[in-house]
Amino acid sequence: SGKAAGKHRVAVYDERSDEARHDRARLADELRAGLARGEVTVAWQPRVRLADGRVMAVEALARWRHPERGTVSPGVFIPVAEESGVIHPLGQAVLRQACRQGQRWAAAGTPVTVAVNVSAMELAREHFLQDVQDALRAEGLAPDLLEIEVTESAAMRDVRANAERLRALRDLGVSVAIDDFGTGYSSLSYLRQLPASVVKVDQSFVRDLTEDLTATEASIVRAVVTLAHGVGMRVVAEGVETETQRRALIALGCQEAQGYLFARPQDAASVGDLLQ
Ligand code: C2E
Ligand code: MG
Ligand code: MG
Ligand code: MG
């Protein structure tokens, strides 16, 4: 009966993976429908200059308010969107909302760069550049007020092709940030090949910063800062939650940061108040 139990386990396992696949397919259908119903909105998180707290940019973070499931996190629905192709209409919707909001802040006399996260799949799409141009034009946003964030691992997957795509964006006047830097296991020297103006140091390195600036985490941040500055890029620390981290980052030469210590992702009106 050990065999029977083994069989049973296998059967259960198969059922569960089928079920998981089915669940994800259903979630993708719901996401597609929810997107059309306007359930996907944007939360805005300011990025500040460490020296004086000035808001340097605002990142658009997708939020899905599902009628029954409540707020679904992007950590859940972005992979589902990528796997199902819903990422394309979703990315378009976020890009449009970001351009529209950026235009509103500019028109209110408080121009600020809006940063939009883009998946590797979106960047690789033939129409991507045209979509960005269309969004800028339709919403009346100046290209230099838009920044596109691409993760290090996405950018490095095909560094030549992506460098070219990012260069085309830059030629439009749009700036580029490399997101989650340090998690992609690529050599620091690859950074040089990307036409980015900003490097965002991943939260995992920021989280463990202490007063000890000789610790490994501090060395990693210092190395990124040195290299990035050497190639003319700015460095943004992600996920800054404590005063200790803030002080360490300043000591390590990092100039900008994002994190709960400064501001949580919030609605556009609250960011508007901050900008005033
Ligand atoms: P990301 O682009 O690296 O964004 C930073 C994440 O860290 C956000 O999570 C933000 O809410 C969170 N965060 C900010 N400050 C702190 C802090 O001090 N402590 C902690 N613990 N977390 C902090 P969120 O909004 O859940 O987004 C997760 C990821 O989902 C994003 O990481 C991004 O990769 C992806 N994402 C979000 N919106 C979009 C989108 O419109 N398109 C695409 N392709 N991806 C998106
Ligand atoms: Mg980002
Ligand atoms: Mg990040
Ligand atoms: Mg991330």
Core attributes:
276 residues, alpha/beta, eight-stranded mixed beta barrel, 9 strands, disordered N terminus, binds magnesium ion
Give an overview in words.
By secondary structure, the chain is an alpha/beta fold. Helix content is 51%, strand content 19%. The chain has helices at residues 2-36, 74-84, 87-107, 120-124, 128-139, 152-157, 159-172, 203-207, 216-230, 243-251, 268-275; strands spanning 40-49, 55-66, 70-72, 113-117, 146-151, 175-181, 198-201, 234-237, 256-257. Strand 8 (234-237), helix 10 and strand 9 (256-257) form a beta-alpha-beta unit. Helix 1 crosses helix 2 (74-84) and helix 3 (87-107) packs parallel to helix 5 (128-139). It is globular. It binds ligand C2E and magnesium ion (3 copies). This is EAL domain-containing protein.
Topology record:
Layout: H1 2-36, E1 40-49, E2 55-66, E3 70-72, H2 74-84, H3 87-107, E4 113-117, H4 120-124, H5 128-139, E5 146-151, H6 152-157, H7 159-172, E6 175-181, E7 198-201, H8 203-207, H9 216-230, E8 234-237, H10 243-251, E9 256-257, H11 268-275
The chain binds ligand C2E and magnesium ion (MG) (3 copies).
